[in-house]
Design goal:
By secondary structure, the protein is an alpha+beta fold. The protein contains 4 helices and 4 strands. The protein has helices at residues 24-38, 52-57, 59-68, 91-98, and strands at residues 3-8, 42-47, 75-78, 81-85. Helix 1 (24-38) links the parallel strand 1 and strand 2 (42-47). The model has no long low-confidence stretch (mean pLDDT 88).
Length: 121
């Protein structure tokens, strides 16, 4: 089973999915990671704002940051090797790395229940 690590830029929280205007790309990535973790896959996500030591300790990530700066984030490693720099993995890439279907990595919309609280006449 592959090990995937995503090194995020400094985000406001662990997923970056907070605040008044949320980037849809961060929602997609957070959803895919959540669903992969739920299935038991080995995927980790690190935030530069909260875990800077991990960025320094990882030789591959540290080298990219020294050469290209923080604009090179996010950086994705698969089995310790750089797989992607400057953009998040697509659902197709996640699917390939973990041997799942890309469709499994997005939340299915749940039916909504509408309740009418107006009294009947």
């Amino acid at each position: 089973m592959n090990k995937v690590e995503i090194f995020d830029p400094a985000l406001c929280c662990a997923t970056g999915v907070c605040g008044p205007s949320v980037d849809p790309e961060l929602i997609r990535v957070a959803t895919a990671i959540f669903l992969l973790e739920k299935k038991g896959y080995n995927i980790k996500r690190y935030n530069l704002g909260f875990e800077p030591a991990i960025f320094v300790e990882n030789k591959e990530v540290s080298k990219v940051l020294h050469e290209k700066g923080p604009d090179s984030l996010p950086i994705t490693l698969v089995e310790g090797e750089i797989a992607k720099i400057g953009a998040y993995p697509t659902n197709d890439e996640f699917a390939e790395w973990f041997g799942v279907q890309a469709e499994e990595l997005s939340e299915k919309s749940k039916p909504r229940l509408t309740i009418d609280l107006k009294p009947s006449k």
